[in-house]
Design brief:
The complex is a heterodimer. By secondary structure, chain A is of the alpha/beta class. Chain A folds into two domains: 191 residues, 3-Layer(aba) Sandwich (D-Maltodextrin-Binding Protein, domain 2); 225 residues, Periplasmic binding protein-like II (D-Maltodextrin-Binding Protein, domain 2). Helices cover 45% and strands 15% of the residues of chain A. In chain A, a hairpin with a 4-residue loop joins strand 7 and strand 8. Chain A is globular and about 70 Å long. In chain B, 77% of the residues lie in helices and 0% in strands. Chain B has 17 helices and no strands. The longest helix of chain B is centred in the first third of the chain and has 35 residues. Chain B is flat, with a radius of gyration of 24 Å. Classes of the chains: A alpha/beta, B mainly alpha.
Chain lengths: 457, 311
Amino acid sequence: MRIRRAAAVGAVAALALTTAACGSSDDGDAAQDSGPRTITIAYQKTSAFHQLDDLLQKVKPEFEKANPDVTVKLAPIEAEADQYYTKLALMNGSKDTAPDVIYEDTFQVMSDAAAGYLLPIDDYTAKWDDWSQFEDAAKNAGLGVDGKTYGVSMGTDTRGIFYNKDLFKKAGLPTDWQPTTWQEIIDAAQTIKDKLPDVTPMNIYAGKAGSEQTTMQGLEMLYYGSRDGADLYNTDQKKWVTGDQGMTDSLDFYKTVYDGGLAPSLDQALDANIGTKVFSELLPQGKLAIDIDGSWMPGGWISGENAWPEWEKTLGFAKMPTKDGSGDGFTSMSGGWLLSVGAQTKSPQTAFDFVAMATNKDSSLEYDTTNSQIAVRKDVAEDPKYLSYNPSFEFFSSLVPYTHFRPATPDYSQISSVIQTEVEAVASGQKSPEDAAKSYDEGLQKIVGKNNTVAAG
Amino acid sequence: MSTQTLAPGTDGGRDTTSRPRSGGLRALTRSVPLVPAILLLAVFLLGPILWSLYGSMTNTALTGYRAADPQFVGLDNYTSLFADADFWASVWITVVFTLASAVVGQNVLGMGLAVLQRMAPKALGSAIGALVVVAWVMPEIVAAFALYAFFSTDGTLNSVLGVVGLGDTTWLITVPLLAVILANVWRGTAFSMLVYRAALSEVPTEIEEAAQIDGANRRQTFFRVTLPMIRRSISTNLMLTTLQTLAVFTIIWVMTGGGPGTKSSTLPVLAYQEAFKYSQVGYGTAIATVTILVGAVFSIVYIKVLKPEVD
């Protein structure tokens, strides 16, 4: 009898606890910008990307010294991009786990601001002297659909072609290579394949698991040069473009490269770690001849655990050509990351102060140099230390006139996922480029609705 | 919980002999001790199912406007789900995966091992048992990484095959479904083996001996006497392994991520993709709800066909 009662009481108590736990998150909503307080910084860290962690480790003690009541809790999320976004969204889903400061990819800003995860910071930037140092393009990168500012830019980037000059020489290709059409890239890769069978001729990201790198360093580098004025989103009509031959052509490039054995084997290409592998293994070990990738790559080779001092001598840089050399002749994509303040923060001023310190001149200088970013602060861009730090800066800055930005809409991140799926389907031979382009149109219409699409013309 | 609620039933029965009460009230009093268990079941099992049913009728997203302000969309998610070729492909993959790895693989292999264990010398039987159980004891994520390391292109399997010059098959790319099926068989067989070993040891040896005296050979004894006697264990085991396999996510996610393309995307993997990669939480929940229904159908079929309650 006693056991039974105890069990019943236990069960009821357990129930009571559960219900209590479900309802117990509403207390003290008032902003708390004085007294002892803790702010949590959520950001990404991988074996190839440690520069931000290095920077924040330095800013933390400095900030705590300047604000003795504040404890800064660094919460690095050790995950590749895809899982990083998911983890962030889940953290933001609950008041108890939502971070105060968020390292935010520019393409996620509109979407996360619309979701109510980010805090508009216009009131704070208005009182911040440094704000005038930021380029307009960088300020725009942090805008939400409502025109409010949701983040402070840490730097931007461009994308181009890296090629291994040693391998090119061995294969009898010019070491001052600059392709002017897509076909010339394929031809060069074919030559490498014929002459150097042990080397992977070229890499263009194709895996779903690679997330945004597949969309941006991959498909968009092709698509935005596939025809004059190619754009996923028609800004004038505010509609998404369907039935674009340029999309089919871009996917066809993938088919040629992956079917023709010019790309990494599928087990490598579709792995979530392909980006890290290219950066820390394939390029430095001379196993990859051509790589379409981002301007931040050399940052990790200059110093740190993946240091590769010979990169400067070994690698050449080339602009990404448009399909047949028409239009501007070349193309590039630009993105970048921001520091944002979480909407659920209890100490918005403190959180913003931290963002301000992490993006002040010294911090930006350190981040833009070590992570090889294109500076968005005027004072950093003019700093001789910045200009002389990395010999690839000159090349990647020269891509700015050719560059494109991703469509700034809250749907973009979902549409980007559809692109990745279709690219993987083509690269793995599951779909023909035509079918994949058609599935893209269907996926697009499912997300934005048929009324919000327009046929390419 | 459930073991403690069994006791009051007998207790209450004794009660009624001394003080007869009206039937309805008696049944009510008798079920009172079940209330905590029922409540817990309702909160932790029925609750999530109802919640997922509701969630599947909204357009909740992980980010964007619909994260802040999801709307009730009725059966829209199901309509577009049933019109989606990827979904049907995924259903087919799930059925193949479940039939091959649970119904055939784990069950038959588990039964085989259990029978062999009974016939083998005791030391050998225990040794085999221990080896098989290791796969079951391992946490799923560890098992998944071990299997990834086994099947990956520069993994153990290819190193071994390399000795005879066959070392460059990309298992996870060329035959992803076969790889995850084998992986799930490896991991789950121990469970079936344990269930069947226990069941077989309950079969009285006299009956088998009697069958043999009547002239039945070993095969006949096994199929006509032993198997029917452990029918209930088979039914229970089939049901459990099927439901477990329907829910398998970690192994597939770690080994192939559902790929290449969608060649090994079972329903749980598809649900995860839709919910967390495409941010369509409502749509992903609809897929999860369908998975629950598929599991329920399997359970009903087993219960009807194998009639575990009838002797």
